[in-house]
Amino acid sequence: MIRTRLGYGLAGLGALLVLMEAVPRLGLVDERFLPPASRILSALAGQLATDELWIALGETMRGWAVGLALAFCAAVVTGVLIGIVPGLRALTSSTIEFLRPIPSVALVPLATLLFGPSLGSTLLLVVYASFWQVLIQVLYGVAAVDSVASDTARSYGLSAWSRVRHLVWPTALPYVMTGLRLAAAVAFILAVTAELVIGSPGLGAEIQVAQSSGAVPAVYALIVVAGLVGIGVNAAVRLLERRVLAWHPAVRAEVAA
Amino acid sequence: MLEISSLNKVYESPGRRVEAIGSITFDVGAGELVCVVGPSGCGKTTLLRCVAGLLPASGGEVRLDGVPVTGPPPRMAVVFQEYGRSLFPWMTVRQNVELPLKEKRVPAGRRRELVDDSLRAVGLSDDADAHPWQLSGGMQQRVAIARAVAYEPQVLLMDEPFAAVDAQTRADLEDLILRLWRELEVTTLFVTHDIDEAVYLGQRVVVLSSSPTTIMEDLKIDLPPERDQLTTRSLPRFGELRGHVYRQIQAARGER
Amino acid sequence: MLEISSLNKVYESPGRRVEAIGSITFDVGAGELVCVVGPSGCGKTTLLRCVAGLLPASGGEVRLDGVPVTGPPPRMAVVFQEYGRSLFPWMTVRQNVELPLKEKRVPAGRRRELVDDSLRAVGLSDDADAHPWQLSGGMQQRVAIARAVAYEPQVLLMDEPFAAVDAQTRADLEDLILRLWRELEVTTLFVTHDIDEAVYLGQRVVVLSSSPTTIMEDLKIDLPPERDQLTTRSLPRFGELRGHVYRQIQAARGER
Amino acid sequence: MRVVRLLALPALLVLVWWAVSGSSFYLPSPAAVGRAFAETWFSERLADDVLPSVGRLLAGYALAGVLGVGLGVPIGLSRRLRATLEPVLEFFRAIPPPVLVPLIMLLAGIDTPMKVLVIVSGCVWPILLNTVEGVRALDEVLADTCRMYGVRGPSRMRSFVLPGAGPQIMTGLRQALSIGIILMVISEMFASSSGLGFTIVLFQRQFQIAEMWSGILLLGLLGLGLSALFRRVERRVLSWYYGSGAARA
Amino acid sequence: APNPDSGVTKVNAGVIAIVDTAPIHLGKAKGFFTEQKIDLTITPVQGGAAAVSGAVSGQFQFAFANTTSLLTAKQQGLDVKVVANGVSSTGEQGKDFSAVLVEPDSPIKTAKDLAGRKISVNQLKNIGDTTVRASVRNAGGDPTGIEFVELPFPDAPAALQGGRVDAIWVVEPFVSQAISQGARPVAWNFADAAANLTVAMYFTTGRTDPELTKRFTAAMRKSLEYADAHPDEVREVLKTYTKIAPDVIAKIYLPKWPVEVNKESVQTIADLAVADGVLKEKIDVSALVP
Ligand SMILES: Nc1ncnc2c1ncn2[C@@H]1O[C@H](COP(=O)(O)OP(=O)(O)OP(=O)(O)O)[C@@H](O)[C@H]1O
Ligand SMILES: Nc1ncnc2c1ncn2[C@@H]1O[C@H](COP(=O)(O)OP(=O)(O)OP(=O)(O)O)[C@@H](O)[C@H]1O
Ligand SMILES: [Mg+2]
Ligand SMILES: [Mg+2]
């Protein structure tokens, strides 16, 4: 099962590689600006051999992991609270909708002001951006609680905490999982972007240097690294999902087949 | 114990206004078992949900032990008509039954005992570790019943709890409820479509009219308190009561 | 018409293996009405879903008109046991009933007629514009029945379709199904828990054992073809058949 | 009462802001930002910078909606398609839009199409992911009902798949709305000479800090307005969902 | 803060990783900063604005920004003060590190033809558009009709080749790269704008200890002098902090690194910026460059 999934996934990636090789080779775009896949991969191989890349990647992943964890926990707690405490939703909705569309990049001056080009700035941007992603998912997930199930919980006198734990949380979990997947990518993107814009060390800084040096294949190689990280993160979340959502119709169908 | 006075409930939504309950007044004494029958859509479920404090009434009130019911009272168990939706799919059968007990802080040993007993009583001992969606409709319904039974409630509300099980299982479950009721003196409100069942179980049978719902009749069941599937059902008085209720319901439906 | 031969179904999931159907073989002739009874959890729903082509069998096969069933055959209607979940909550009652007809490309005028007729037959004319979740359990079930009836199927599968309605409504609906069956010669497989109902409706009653399920008995109902709630049910032969089936089911449950 | 509830928290936040401001060049007082707001945005900037930006935002958002749902439905329905495409999509999803922009510029030039595409490239993900998950989680009994009654093809989409996944699709659309605004700013950081996002970035680079914050304020207000609009649409589209008690919001 | 034990001061400098900043890297490698008891950390920043905000917020004691950015910051009331020269134009037509390029078959032959065209610069309202306008004006054209668009240097050549813009302004290494791929220079805008134009400078803020500033300035001056005199070593050091391909490094035009800021040229830029509307009002350069 897992193996066939992997097979399909590799086929998809293979097709992408072929496409990326063909487009520049057929002259659809200029090779100098979008090198064929083989060139990108050989540049990547060169990079992988250096310590720099791994150190940069480590820096980025550290900012990513810490930021994501902070944002996720904060958003889940906030979301569940807003979702179950009556009146809180109305009280906060305008503020949430106001703050949500403020781009993290606009916070760059604030971040550099507070933390300078360091992990702190990266974290500020990462947390700010991914927090909303999870929060909205949690809010919708909490709203999806089945009315009969909720009546059941109430009539058996389940306490607020038990209702959260045994009813609200499992119901919201599929939404939260999607939120986690969204936030994981956004956190990673923001980690890289923060490095790109503020210059805190990491993958983004590497990309920035490669860009301003006009080293096109190197830039794309680094982008590929970013993409690969994305695939890895998603695979991990999917694995987690299979464990925690085994009861869910969507996952059930997948496992059964 | 349970006083329902001029209860009225209107569902209002844009473009639709349904007076589900016109005006209902009746009492259920402590430790009494009252069955409610009435045509489909007459407001039985609505009544039960108002009594359970899950639905605010539009008029009148419900009192439990003299206190107006505004939310679900403690030590009350409900078996919902939508049994499937009332089980948590992320929990096993055992966990579903156990959850309210944990909430009640029943010690682990006693909890185990209660869960095992109630699952055995509904014939699901072998399926304790299955998830609800792995069970047949009737089995799911029995899980919901087991949950209510294990909870040892003071007030028990049941909404067509045996609709999805076969005749024989139904008889067994009827006796289970009777036993529980007798042993723990549970005040019980029991909604059913099966007239035989209502007469067999109830000390009283409340017949509702079709909507706007009122009480057609509040019938005392003067059968001997000790009931038994074979003998009770073959009593001539049983037949009479049964026929009476049947005619009442037919009248209720005829009205509209 | 419908041939079920050595059908076997095993549910397998990590940590749980249930042989829901051991081996079942029986035929339903064209235009025949066969009732299926059996203890709760014995595999009736499973059987129906295999026949409907919704569930792949683990062994054996189902043939319709000689063709193996691999997916839902055309012109087949099903009333699911989970009636609540089988209605589209975003559609009104009318839209729910109308959807399959649209799919069948029934012209608008005729469609209207069919929908109105079937809603009237189940007593829901006034609720055509309500959404399913605004209805009582019994009303929801009747919508599902109306949908199947309006569809004018060649094959009709019903899984405890009257579980949630009161006795009187149930009688009316039974007669509705009988009329439909007679007028359109619909081949019908009817799952029920109510033994009286099975005997009253069926030309044959198939009694299933508890799992691993086999056929306990395939009983021909030798009552006169014209049936009527009062006279048929009071025939001595009706009582005999009823008692026979009852004993069989009891035996089936006893086995486990 | 409603107004009080809506405004209580924002008022509190402004107070906090007011208390901490002034300590730094980068944190001007609410009054200064308010003044800058009036001067900056109640001018021809509204027509020259804000409106075209909002136009691009809406175009990108609409496109992302069509693309996200259009792709999400088949991916959600087919396990095989999902296994094949997921890694590729995850690959692109992890690429930060700022580094994706040069590639988009290669393919779509540097004018409006590029900016719209950049917006799409960010907005599409929450819609796509939520659609996929929503479609995966469709009720089995309803699916069976459709199969039985031969509800297929477009009609199955219209009457089953889309409404069934509706709540989750709406979640995605709601997410995408604010991401769209963010991407609008990012898209204007490249190859621009006008636009709301561009103006904010320019203010930032020119150290016109009060003006910059007024631009951020405008972004927030834009988000607020669009989400109010969205809410109305959502209440309509999902009236069955919020009415049924399947959800309590 | 100075370390009392060793007397060595830790300094963090925010510097963009391009050719222009080779001296500080070279100086660090040569130990010029250690000589001044400065333990220098060079933090790459993305651009002038980031450098200024980093310096103002105290993250950097010193930073590198271009002339226009510094003028703008000064005008907005930020407390910035130049401590050393950064980089200067060679002033030689055809041999500078900054140029306006067009496609080989473009009808644009001279700077004058740029009038009314679409030209990319890395940042609007900055040194790029100011100096390009100066080039056009000097050649007898009317710069008012030019449409400038923002494109990062790395993306400009592709946009030019794709016909998205009529001309691009880029600096090294993109000048050499584009020229080797066929692009044709039509103006050397830094050389046109002013003689020996000071393009960028190192600066600090009021909060830095004046004594430390003195030491940093001394080290910086030595670094500039050394870099200017040793182009080969510059090309070597480029390999350490940029990713420019070695063959390109060998070819690029290096800028000039004079020790002194050319105040006159800064004033010229300031005046041009006012004329072009980049700055709001006239500014006295001596307030910025002591
Ligand atoms: N959520 C709701 N919104 C609007 N109307 C409702 C709602 N629930 C029930 N009704 C209406 O109230 C009336 C009574 O419904 P109720 O569910 O109480 O009936 P019931 O007696 O339980 O019927 P059944 O035996 O079929 O379950 C019905 O006409 C129904 O349409
Ligand atoms: N999805 C499933 N996964 C695993 N086991 C299942 C599943 N569905 C049914 N079963 C098992 O198969 C057996 C038969 O179930 P089925 O639903 O066919 O019974 P039924 O005869 O319809 O019962 P009822 O009268 O209670 O509806 C049961 O033991 C049940 O636990
Ligand atoms: Mg009901
Ligand atoms: Mg069943």
TrEMBL record, chain A:
Give the range the annotation lists for the signal sequence. none
- Example of a GO cellular component annotation carried by this entry: plasma membrane
* GO BP term, pick one: cellular response to sulfur starvation
The answer to whether keyword Ligase applies is no
Q: Which PROSITE patterns match?
A: ABC_TM1 (PS50928)
Q: Does the keyword Nucleotide-binding apply?
A: no
Concerning its family, UniProt says: Belongs to the binding-protein-dependent transport system permease family.
Protein's name according to its UniProt entry = ABC-type nitrate/sulfonate/bicarbonate transport system, permease component
UniProtKB/TrEMBL annotation, chains B, C:
The family database entries (InterPro entries) matched by this protein are listed as:
AAA+_ATPase, ABC_transporter-like_ATP-bd, ABC_transporter-like_CS, ABC_transporter_ATP-bind, P-loop_NTPase
Q: Short name of one Pfam family for this protein? A: ABC_tran
Keyword set, alphabetical order: ATP-binding, Nucleotide-binding, Transport
Residues forming the ABC transporter domain are 2-235
- Give one GO term, molecular function aspect: ATP hydrolysis activity
By what name is this protein known? NitT/TauT family transport system ATP-binding protein
UniProtKB/TrEMBL annotation, chain D:
Q: Where does this protein have coiled-coil stretches? A: none
What family does the entry list? Belongs to the binding-protein-dependent transport system permease family.
Q: Where in the cell is it found?
A: Cell membrane
Which of UniProt's keywords are assigned here?
Answer: Cell membrane, Membrane, Transmembrane, Transmembrane helix, Transport
Give residue ranges for domain ABC transmembrane type-1: 50-230
Q: Which GO terms describe its cellular component?
A: plasma membrane
How does the record classify its membrane topology?
Multi-pass membrane protein
**In its UniProt entry, what is this protein called?**
ABC-type nitrate/sulfonate/bicarbonate transport system, permease component
Cited Pfam families: BPD_transp_1
Transmembrane in keyword set:
yes
**UniProt xrefs under Gene3D superfamilies:** MetI-like (1.10.3720.10)
Q: Which GO terms describe its biological process?
A: transmembrane transport
**Source organism:** Nonomuraea solani
Which InterPro entries does the protein's record reference? Answer: MetI-like, MetI-like_sf
> Would the keyword Ribonucleoprotein be found if you checked this record's keyword annotation?
no
Q: Where are the transmembrane segments?
A: 54-77, 89-110, 116-138, 176-203, 209-230
